[in-house]
UniProtKB/TrEMBL annotation:
<protein>
    <submittedName>
        <fullName>PfkB domain protein</fullName>
    </submittedName>
</protein>
<dbReference type="Pfam" id="PF13489">
    <property type="entry name" value="Methyltransf_23"/>
</dbReference>
<dbReference type="GO" id="GO:0004730">
    <property type="term" value="F:pseudouridylate synthase activity"/>
</dbReference>
<dbReference type="InterPro" id="IPR029056">
    <property type="entry name" value="Ribokinase-like"/>
</dbReference>
<feature type="domain" description="Carbohydrate kinase PfkB">
    <location>
        <begin position="263"/>
        <end position="608"/>
    </location>
</feature>
<dbReference type="GO" id="GO:0005737">
    <property type="term" value="C:cytoplasm"/>
</dbReference>
<dbReference type="InterPro" id="IPR029063">
    <property type="entry name" value="SAM-dependent_MTases_sf"/>
</dbReference>
<dbReference type="Pfam" id="PF00294">
    <property type="entry name" value="PfkB"/>
</dbReference>
<dbReference type="GO" id="GO:0016798">
    <property type="term" value="F:hydrolase activity, acting on glycosyl bonds"/>
</dbReference>
<dbReference type="GO" id="GO:0046872">
    <property type="term" value="F:metal ion binding"/>
</dbReference>
<dbReference type="InterPro" id="IPR011611">
    <property type="entry name" value="PfkB_dom"/>
</dbReference>
<keyword id="KW-0479">Metal-binding</keyword>
Length: 635
C-alpha cells in the first residue's frame, strides 16, 4: 500500500488536528468536482492545505496545488514501518484479508481466486500473507513496483487497502481496477470514510468534522470518500457497490463486477436519409444520405460496452466488405463477438430509414434475411463458442450479481439476456430454454415482428420474458395477437394513476389512448411478463410492473436523429439493473434509460460516440439539479 500509519486516531494526528482547527476558514474557488462536475458547495483551509467538498456526490478532495511531487511522496512512504516486523500492522492486514476471503467464499464456493494487490507498497505485506496461504497473487505499485499486469490479464479479487485516499484521479484508478477485474469478481477497498449525513447544504457539519479529523493530516491523503461517493464511483465505473463493513480501523467497501449481458439479435448497415426541408411524398427530396453501423441487438450491445458492462453478442454477419467493416467496428467498441456466425450472403443486412425534417422516423425498410440462418441448432453452436468466457471463480451464485442467479442448469453464466425481434421464434424459444433463472428482456423491433413472436404457439413466449420494451404500436400488436379484448371497465390502479395527473402534467396523449396503453400493459403483465417499458416518443416512457406505474417525461431537447434512441434506453435500464437491485431503484432505472436516449437523440449516429457512464451520470445530475425530469409514480 502507498502509506498507512497504523494508529487509532493517534496522539500525533490528534494534536495536529487541534492545532489546525482554529485556522479553518472558507475560501472562494471555481474548481469543479472531478466526479459530477458540480461546483463544490464548501471549501475550507488548514494551515497547510485547502480542501473542497461536493454535496452532490459526497466527495472531499485536497487542492491539487498542495500535492507532493513524486519524489517527496515516495520519500514520505519510505518513512513508515509497514513491514512483517510490525506485529500490530501485520495483524491489521490479516484481519482485513480474512474479511475479504470470507466475503469471497459467500460469493463462490471452493474456488481458488487469483488476486491482485493494488498499491502494495515498498514491502507488500498483504501479498506475502496471501501467498503463504497458497493463493496466486500479483502486486502492483506505481512507486515501488511491480508495474501494472499485462493488459489482457484478469483477476478474481482485487484488494486496495489504505490506498484509495492517495488517488489523485479516483475515476481513473477505479476504472483501471475495474479493467483488471473478471466479470463476477470482487473489488475490496479499505479506507476511512466520511459520514453521509454531513453532506447537507443546510449545515456546515462537514467542515467541523473535517477540521478535527486525524485522517486528513497526512499530506499524501488527497481523496476522501463518503458512501455516496463510492456508490457514485460504482455507477460510473460499472461496478455494483454492495456495502461498507466498518470498524474503528476503517471501512472495507465491496464492489462486484456484473456478470456479462448476453445480447442476441440483428446487426446491419444503417442507411439513413434526411431531407433538408419538409418531406414531400412521391418526390425526390433534396437531403443527405449516410451509412453507419446499426441493428437493434448490435446497437444495444455496443451501448452496453460503452457503458462499461461486459457484453457478448450473438448474431449473423456476412462476409462482404460492408459486413466485415460492421464486425470490426463492433469489436473495436468492446463487444464480445465469439458467438457470432459468418455467412456468405447475396447482400449485407441493411436498415433503410427516411427521417422527416425534425429527425424523427417517417418510414423504414429492413432487409434482415441473413438472421434467419440463426436457427436453434446454430444458436447452440454459438453458445458453445461462448462457453470458455472468463468469469470469476468456478461458478456463479446470487450474491455475485444483484440482478440474477447467473448460473443455470444449462451452464450459461450471464447477469441478463436481451433478445430482439429479428430472431425467428424457434430460436428465441431455444434461447429461453437455455436461460432458466436469468432475466430476459425483449425488444420487439417492429409491429410485424412483434406479432410474429407474440402469436408463436399461442403466445407461449411472451410470459417468459422478464421485461418487454415496445413502442405503443408494438404494444398493441402484441396484446391483440394474444386476443386482448378491450374492456370498458378501468382497473382501480389505472384509474387512480390517471386521476393523479395534474393539469400541468397533461400531455398531447388523449385520456382514452392513455387508458388503452395502461390496460394493454396490464394485460401483458397478467400473461407473465414482469415489467413493461412503453416508449411514447416525445411524451417519454410509461413503465408498469406488479407494484407500480411510472411515467417518465424527460425535457424536450433538440433532436438530430431518433434512430437508436430506443436501443440506448434498453441498454441503460439493463445496465442499471445490473448495478442495482431487481426489487428497487425503479426511479434510477427509468431516469437512466431516458438520459441514454437523450444522448442518442442529439447525435446523428445510432450509437452516440459520446455515450459513456460519466456522460450519463452528469446528465442525470443536471436533470436532478434543474428539476428537469418529470417522473410520476403511483404505487
Amino acid at each position: 500500500m502507498y502509506f498507512y500509519r497504523y494508529v487509532k486516531r493517534d496522539i500525533i494526528g490528534f494534536i495536529l488536528s487541534l492545532a489546525n482547527q482554529e485556522n479553518l476558514q472558507y475560501s472562494n474557488h471555481s474548481m469543479k468536482c472531478p466526479f459530477c462536475d458540480s461546483v463544490p458547495s464548501k471549501s475550507f483551509m488548514t494551515k497547510k492545505r485547502s480542501f473542497f467538498a461536493c454535496d452532490s456526490c459526497g466527495f472531499v478532495w485536497a487542492d491539487p496545488k498542495s500535492f507532493l511531487d513524486r519524489e517527496a511522496e515516495q520519500n514520505r512512504y519510505m518513512l513508515h514501518n509497514n513491514n512483517r516486523y510490525n506485529k500490530e500492522y501485520v495483524q491489521f492486514i490479516s484481519t482485513i484479508l480474512n474479511r475479504v476471503l470470507q466475503r469471497w467464499n459467500i460469493i463462490v464456493n471452493d474456488a481458488a481466486p487469483r488476486i491482485l494487490d493494488w498499491g502494495s507498497g515498498p514491502e507488500p505485506v498483504a501479498s506475502e500473507l496471501l501467498r503463504e496461504q497458497g493463493f496466486q497473487v500479483e502486486s502492483y505499485d506505481p512507486f515501488f513496483g511491480p508495474s501494472l499486469p499485462q493488459e489482457q490479464q484478469r483477476f478474481d479479487i482485487i484488494i486496495c487497502i489504505e490506498v484509495a485516499e492517495h488517488f489523485k484521479n479516483p475515476l481513473a484508478d477505479f476504472a483501471a481496477m475495474n479493467h483488471y477485474l473478471k466479470p463476477g469478481g470482487l473489488l475490496a477497498v479499505h479506507t476511512h470514510t466520511l459520514p453521509d449525513q454531513y453532506f447537507s447544504i443546510k449545515n456546515d457539519e462537514i467542515s467541523r468534522f473535517f477540521s478535527s479529523w486525524w485522517y486528513k493530516e497526512d499530506p499524501t491523503h488527497v481523496a476522501f470518500y463518503s458512501e455516496i461517493t463510492l456508490r457514485t464511483l460504482g455507477f460510473v465505473c460499472g461496478l455494483h457497490y454492495e456495502h461498507g463493513d466498518g470498524s474503528d480501523e476503517g471501512t472495507l467497501h465491496y464492489f462486484i463486477k456484473p456478470l456479462p449481458v448476453l445480447v442476441a439479435g440483428g446487426a446491419n448497415v444503417d442507411i439513413e436519409g434526411r431531407p433538408f426541408g419538409p418531406l414531400n411524398d412521391r418526390d425526390s427530396n433534396p437531403g443527405r444520405v449516410r451509412f453507419s453501423r446499426g441493428g437493434a441487438g448490435r446497437n444495444i450491445a455496443e451501448n452496453l460496452a460503452r457503458l462499461n458492462i461486459p457484453v457478448q453478442f450473438i448474431s449473423v454477419f456476412g462476409k462482404d466488405p460492408l459486413s466485415r467493416m460492421l464486425l470490426e467496428e463492433t469489436k473495436a467498441a468492446g463487444v464480445g463477438l465469439d458467438g457470432c456466425l459468418l455467412v456468405e450472403a447475396d447482400s449485407p443486412s441493411c436498415y433503410l430509414s427516411i427521417l422527416d425534417e425534425t429527425g424523427d422516423m417517417k418510414l423504414a425498410l429492413s432487409s434482415m434475411d441473413s438472421i434467419k440462418r440463426l436457427t436453434p441448432d446454430v444458436l447452440e453452436a454459438c453458445l458453445s463458442a461462448l462457453s470458455d468466457q472468463t468469469c470469476a471463480g468456478d461458478s456463479a451464485f446470487d450474491a455475485r450479481s444483484p440482478s440474477a442467479t447467473g448460473a443455470t442448469s444449462a451452464g450459461l453464466v450471464y447477469s441478463m439476456v436481451i433478445i430482439d425481434g429479428n430472431l425467428i421464434p424457434e430460436t428465441i424459444e431455444a434461447l429461453l430454454d437455455r436461460c432458466p433463472g436469468i432475466p430476459v428482456w425483449f425488444d420487439p423491433v417492429s409491429i410485424t415482428k412483434a406479432r410474429s413472436i407474440a402469436s408463436y404457439k399461442g403466445g407461449a413466449l411472451i410470459g417468459r420474458f422478464f421485461g418487454i420494451k415496445p413502442n405503443r404500436d408494438e404494444l398493441f400488436a402484441i396484446a391483440e395477437s394474444l386476443n386482448w379484448g378491450e374492456s370498458k371497465i378501468i382497473p382501480k390502479s389505472i384509474h387512480q394513476f390517471i386521476e393523479s395527473i395534474s393539469p400541468q402534467e397533461h400531455s398531447s396523449i388523449p385520456r382514452r389512448d392513455l387508458e388503452r396503453i395502461l390496460m394493454a400493459s396490464r394485460f401483458l403483465l397478467d400473461k407473465g411478463c414482469q415489467e413493461l417499458h412503453v416508449s411514447l416518443g416525445t411524451e417519454g416512457v410509461i413503465v408498469m410492473n406488479s407494484v407500480s406505474i411510472m411515467w417518465g417525461r424527460p425535457p424536450v431537447l433538440p433532436m438530430i436523429s431518433a434512430t437508436g434512441a430506443g436501443d440506448s434506453y434498453l441498454a441503460a435500464i439493463v445496465r442499471t439493473r445490473c448495478l442495482e437491485s431487481l426489487v428497487g431503484a425503479h426511479d434510477l432505472v427509468v431516469r437512466s434509460g431516458c438520459a441514454a436516449s437523450a444522448i442518442t437523440l442529439q447525435d446523428q449516429n445510432a450509437v452516440s460516440p459520446q455515450m459513456c457512464p460519466l456522460a450519463l451520470y452528469r446528465l442525470l445530475q443536471a436533470w436532478k439539479k434543474n428539476k428537469a425530469f418529470n417522473l410520476l409514480v403511483h404505487d
